[in-house]
Amino acid sequence: MTEETAEQDPDILGASFEGKRVVIGLGNPFMKDDGVGILAAKELRHRDLGVGVLVYEYQTLELSLLWQFRGASRVIVVDALRSGVTPGTVSMFAITPREGPVLDLPSLHALQLYDMFDLANQAGMLPCPVTIVGVEPKDCSLGEGLTDDVAAAVPKAVELVIEGLRLPQQSDEAEGEAATRKSAASTEGGCLHS
């Protein structure tokens, strides 16, 4: 993999994210619309994203991987995100640290995506901006391929990621305040994982 375009599947476990902008397409390609993040990541690999951008496909984002993000300059996750809107709707959410300590978490084996990034923020492991680009799924049952509504949303999700990669660092705090939605819509996670 070169740093200018991400054409090969890089090894996420051995990578250094120091100073890099990291995009992770999350999902399970064998659970229909849950594979939207994987397809977006594949599309992003064919784009010129500039120097210092790493693109990964990953089926689950585990707590044990969060330590790798500590040196990143920006993290963007693309995932199926249930929020009750029309299937194929693409939303962007900025993860910002919650007020006070993290006290009421579920089991560490069943953390939602937001909880994982919140823990990383609280532990000082993730000082960089984190953005979630979510696509509302229609069908996350067993099977391959996206439904038509979700497939049609992939180009918009890809463009939002590219826009997010271009944002200057100093605007992240203002962007986070404007885009943060700490409701159930932003914390339910994908169809099966998170």
Question: What can you see in these coordinates?
Answer:
The protein is an alpha/beta fold. Strand 1, helix 1 (36-44) and strand 2 (53-58) form a beta-alpha-beta unit. It has helices at residues 36-44, 113-122, 148-166, 172-179, 184-187; strands spanning 21-26, 53-58, 74-80, 90-95, 130-135. The protein has a single domain, classed as Rossmann fold, CATH 3.40.50.
| Alpha carbon gyration radius | 15 Å
User: Would you report the number of β strands?
Assistant: 5
- Return the string of H and E elements: EHEEEHEHHH
Instruction: List the strand order in the largest sheet.
Output: 2-1-3-5-4
Question: Can you tell me the overall shape?
Answer: globular
- Name of the CATH superfamily: HybD-like
* Share of helix, binned: 25-40%
Structural class: alpha/beta
Q: Which CATH top level class fits?
A: Alpha Beta
- Proportion of beta-strand residues: 15-25%
Oligomeric assembly: single chain
What do the pLDDT scores average to? 78
Tell me the number of helical segments per DSSP (H or I, 4 or more residues long).
Answer: 5
CATH architecture: 3-Layer(aba) Sandwich
CATH topology: Rossmann fold
Terminus-to-terminus distance: 26 Å
Largest sheet: 5 strands, mixed
User: How many domain regions?
Assistant: 1
